[in-house]
Design brief:
Blueprint (H helix, E strand, L loop, with lengths): L12 E2 L11 E9 L2 E9 L3 E4 L18 E6 L9 E7 L2 H14 L9 E10 L10 E9 L4 E9 L22 E5 L6 E3 L22 E5 L20
Antiparallel strand pairs: 1-6, 2-3, 3-4, 4-5, 5-10, 6-7, 7-8, 8-9, 9-12, 10-11
């Protein structure tokens, strides 16, 4: 599996079963630098967003950039974990996991050898969509990690079966159509952002087959000084030409 280990047996916390819910404020044991700014608090939002400083409960994704809201959106769409699925998170310094993360990132970025000292692992496990009349669920994961100098985010997509909740004009039976999920990075400064190709289009359901590191279903970015790596067509450094 692309996914790093997760779940209660790994010591994960579990988000509440609330539509448009969020975790409590997570105080980071290692401050995290994102687009040049260092943050000490994150929220794991049920709707597929990890936000810095304040929660984001919005269920229909907006185009980026969004001013004043720094966040990463592993899969921003109208999740309803009351109908199905769980959302897990943990901060970890587990040596075996950090070794796996370090080997992966060093493989993708060989010019910058990396030894992870901390990670935040967030996993959406077979989560349903709002208004669903189906059994469809999405499983995906985001990992924030650092060696205290360089900061990376890994996005893993294991099983993506829907793109849109019914309140975002999606079809209740298929979970498709309407305003599809957004995957990307928003600095919060109204200028710098990055959209993963296919975001907010029907093509985002195929994200399990795409990558910027030649591993289908995995995208990895350096985010302290945000850098686009291994993506065609050529991109400007911070925002995306699609």
């Amino acid at each position: 599996s692309l996914l790093y280990p997760y779940g209660p047996h790994q010591g994960d916390e579990t988000n509440p079963k609330h539509d448009d819910g969020t975790s409590e404020a997570i105080i980071l044991s290692v401050p995290f630098t994102f687009y040049g700014k260092t943050h000490q608090t994150v929220f794991v939002n049920n709707n597929g967003v990890i936000s810095f400083n304040e929660p984001i409960r919005q269920y229909t994704p907006d185009p980026l950039p969004l001013d004043g809201h720094p966040f990463v959106a592993p899969y921003w769409a109208d999740v309803d974990n009351v109908l199905g699925g769980d959302i897990f998170y943990r901060q970890t310094t587990d040596p075996a996991l950090l070794e796996d993360i370090s080997q992966d990132i060093t493989q993708y970025f060989p010019k910058s050898p990396f030894t992870a000292t901390w990670a935040l692992v967030v996993t959406w496990d077979h989560v349903a969509y709002y208004g669903s009349t189906s059994e469809k669920g999405n499983t995906f994961q985001a990992v924030l990690t650092t060696d205290s100098k360089i900061f990376y985010i890994i996005l893993n997509y294991w099983d993506i079966q829907w793109t849109t909740g019914a309140a975002s004009d999606g079809d209740a039976e298929t979970g498709l159509g309407g305003t599809p999920a957004h995957v990307g990075f928003n600095s919060g400064d109204d200028t710098n952002f990055y959209n993963i190709p296919g975001s907010q289009t029907n093509a985002i359901i195929n994200i399990t087959t795409t990558s910027n590191v030649k591993i289908p279903g995995r995208w990895v970015f350096r985010v302290d000084d945000f850098q686009v790596t291994g993506v065609d067509p050529p991109q400007r450094n911070n925002d995306c030409w699609l």
